[in-house]
Amino acid sequence: MGKKVVVTGVPGVGKTTVINGAMERLAAEGIAYEAINYGTFMFDVAQQENLASNRDEMRKLGKDVQKRLQKAAASGIAAKSADANVIIDTHSSVKTPTGFLAGLPEWVLRELMPDIVVLVETDADQILMRRLGDDSRVRDMEGARAIAEHQEFNRAIAAAYAMYTGCTIKIVRNENFLLEKGIEDLVSVLR
Ligand code: AP5
Description:
Keywords: ATP-binding, Cytoplasm, Kinase, Nucleotide-binding, Transferase
Bound molecules: BIS(adenosine)-5'-pentaphosphate
Number of strands: 7
Enzyme class: transferase
EC number: 2.7.4.3
Family: Belongs to the archaeal adenylate kinase family.
Radius of gyration: 16 Å
Catalytic activity: AMP + ATP = 2 ADP
Strand order of the largest sheet: 2-3-1-6-7
């Protein structure tokens, strides 16, 4: 049975950057992990159904549509990750126009049953600057206070995920100029 590690963090915190660094380091040690991006699974379906033309539009779709896409992705990912070591790159909660949507509600957790949920975090002002500097995405423009609240909410909801699955919750800081430290912290739980 492989290890299932869910890696989460607010948009722009750099979770994909940290995951890519950790995968490289583990590969050099001969430890195989597959990285699966939850949003990509959802976006494939959203695109086929002409619901969204970029991945950032998905969090603005109606709640029931997002939940349907989320459910479809959970079964697809579970089927793909049966026995392998996998990292699932996703969100503890998604900020939608009508409030926070749980990224890992009961029907997703039942499919994935993660061993560890990682929260990648850093100071809200650093996240704000990263969003402003990233032209490749359509990031939500919000202030540092709102970003900090979203990170707080992610910790609270992660506690519920731990209660349901018995998984551990690991906080990895990805601070400016300290990317290597964030990568090493993630590697230490993946090893
Ligand atoms: P997804 O694509 O996962 O959205 P995202 O969080 O915006 O993902 P990214 O990987 O682009 O951001 P990141 O924060 O990891 O940052 P990056 O490494 O690029 O998901 C798309 C959509 O799918 C969601 O919006 C949602 O609608 C849906 N979705 C996904 N999962 C779902 C679920 N479970 N339920 C419902 N919906 C779901 O880095 C950002 C920038 O920071 C880069 O410029 C980078 O160079 C820089 N940076 C990184 N680290 C550092 C550092 N240490 N110092 C300085 N700069 C840094």
